[in-house]
Amino acid sequence: NYKLNVPPTSRHNKRFFENLSGAGKAIAVLTSGGDAQGMNAAVRAVVRMGIYVGAKVYFVHEGYQGMVDGGDNIKEATWESVSSMLQMGGTVIGSARCKDFRMHEGRLKAAHNLVQRGITNLCVIGGDGSLTGANLFREEWSGLLAELVQQGLIDEEASQKYSALHIVGMVGSIDNDFCVTQRKCYLALVSALACGADWVLIPEMPPEDGWEEKMCQKLSAKRAGMKRLNIIIVAEGAIDRNNQPITSEHVKNLVVQRLGFDTRVTILGHVQRGGTPSAFDRILASRMGVEAVLALLETTANTPACVVSLCGNQSVRLPLMECVQMIQHLYLIKYNNNTNVFVCTCRSFENNLKTYKLLAHRKPESELPQSNFNVAVLNVGAPAAGMNAAVRSAVRVGISEGHKMFAVSDGFEGFYKGQIKEIKWADVGGWTGQGGSLLGTKRTLPAKHIDKIAEQMRKYNINALLVIGGFEAFLGIMELLAARGTYEELCVPMVMVPATVSNNVPGSDLSIGADTALNAITVTCDRIKQSASGTKHRVFIIETMGGYCGYLASVGGLAAGADAAYIFEEPFDIRDLQSNVEHLTEKMKTSIQRGLVLRNENSNENYTTDFIYQLYSEEGKGVFDCRKNVLGHMQQGGAPSPFDRNFGTKIAAKAMQWISKKLNESYRKGRVFANTEDSACLLGMRRRALVFQPVVQLRDETDFVHRIPKEQWWLKLRPLMKILAKYKTSYDISDSGQLEHVVLNRPKQSEAMAAI
């Protein structure tokens, strides 16, 4: 229920951060509030980017308490002081909830400690309370300095020199309770989406009266359908309509007494707050940390304090004051006396709730619309974690829309062989958390079997197709589209949902499965580096998958803290390899003990993984030794990450809703006939939104020889990896430095009620 108001200035003119200097500036970084995974990655990025541009960077240990106490709590950071912290959970510089900082006297002491060290740039990593406190500190800054002058603690010259305090905030919180941050949702609700929970109880949406009976009826029906277990998620603070708490113990007793089911309670507690950060959290934190330093470098006396964040895959800066003011609007729960229900005004919450209810609660047959349309869903290409979540979502949304859903086994090969059967609501139960492709998937393309596929379309009266897969799925849709002139059976709505670990599908910045693969790479790299914890001066050469697409190597390298990543999209030669060896040699002379180099499997036909390993081994003699690892298909297997489960769930649901719309538009005279360009689309993530794009329009954006898009957004992240590895490089900041504004869009009452 907010929108980002982008300034009209053009973002197409490239700007580079080399024109920004941190010389003479002092930046302090602190973490405040509860620990959150990724905080260390953010601290590391702020420190290294700050030092890189010539600024002095200080740690403030123990959050605001350390700023108030001063002394050794505020120490200058070095490049090496943030080594080996990327993969660590929590915050190594400490965090504390500070009562002193809430008092005027405490903030006065904090101001004195900062001025003594010449610090006027503050990077605060924390949640709602921490960033609200930072905003108050900045508002009071001039008054605090005046008091320090009056008390004789600083002179007038210092007051003038340090007259402006610049603050940039980064949201670091497992609660995700600050406005306009990415993945703006609630732990319990989105966890319910990710694991396919049978029931969820959350404070933002108290259940209607009589919920106990309805929940037990649903659990009983699931057991009757041969389901062996049920999951109920109870959020901390869950309440009923009478504002009475709903506890996990109460729910357990309810199930035991009414149903007699063997029931266990697991309270996750601080398990949720600890642990190693995911690849997403590391990349998010690293990008936000670098963006925070850039924002501080560009500040003037009139620049408002801002929060750096991520919207879609794009960095944004938002005025801190506007965000603080927006919190009360976005996350306020209101009680509606007319309808006797609670209404939460956060639209993202409403969307998540709609999706969960759509997939978890089946309507009675009598309440379902009768569309008389048959929709087929199939997986094409290599397996990708999250495919099953997408199929489950598509099937259940399709049934809710009144369609008859058909599952095609083994992709287009199974299609022309007639491996097609109707798939019911219960058939996809428990699919969300399973890896691979339960439908079966193959790389076979349809062109050689178009006649047989058309025959099967006619036999089963298929009115629409949903294809979930990678580059082969994209090619397959194009081949079906090209055959429409010959086979009328193919003149039906078709939509593709990208699902591939390679993330090489044109028209989408992200693909289902890529996040799980990145996590596999990141965790493996952590373990590989840990294997040398007792060995000095070792470099690991690691080969990743991806075909000709360097996404996994590049973004995985950023998440794992790699020193270099060799990819096809960025050609390299022997001089580059030699330069990297020399760079690592210099680093090994400091306290840095281990190096990490990633190589995409098809980055260069001559400079193979073996060649690079042998080159590094020979040139590094006497300084470091080498080991090599080929990660292989472990990047393709395993259970899908929560991100891939939810991404697959939401994008497939949106695709099915598009299919329903197109079926109604193209139904004429008792049949479906769709042969326009926009009746065969790819649904992809583009910058900040999911967008339907006709596949024919994506032809010019595609390098068909190497099976990659001609332009790839993540290439802009490669300089970040190099900067954080201490390489001198050029960094395009065209997408940075634009302050946007938050505008409240209040949902209509009817929309809010529809969600409930």
UniProtKB/TrEMBL annotation:
Molecular function in Gene Ontology: 6-phosphofructokinase activity; AMP binding; ATP binding; fructose-6-phosphate binding; identical protein binding; metal ion binding; monosaccharide binding
Cofactor: Mg(2+)
Residue ranges annotated for the Phosphofructokinase domain, each copy included: 27-182, 186-295, 374-659
Any single biological process term in GO: fructose 6-phosphate metabolic process
Keyword Metal-binding included in the entry's annotation: yes
Recorded metabolic or biological pathway in which this protein acts: Carbohydrate degradation; glycolysis; D-glyceraldehyde 3-phosphate and glycerone phosphate from D-glucose: step 3/4
Enzyme Commission code: 2.7.1.11
Keyword Magnesium carried by entry: yes
Catalytic activity: beta-D-fructose 6-phosphate + ATP = beta-D-fructose 1,6-bisphosphate + ADP + H(+)
Membrane-spanning segments: none
One annotated Gene Ontology cellular component of this protein: membrane
EC class (word): transferase
InterPro entries: 6-Pfructokinase_euk, ATP_PFK, Phosphofructokinase_CS, Phosphofructokinase_dom, PKF_sf
Keywords noted in UniProt: Allosteric enzyme, ATP-binding, Cytoplasm, Glycolysis, Kinase, Magnesium, Metal-binding, Nucleotide-binding, Transferase
Pfam families per record: PFK
Protein family per UniProt: Belongs to the phosphofructokinase type A (PFKA) family. ATP-dependent PFK group I subfamily. Eukaryotic two domain clade "E" sub-subfamily.
Protein's name according to its UniProt entry: 6-phosphofructokinase
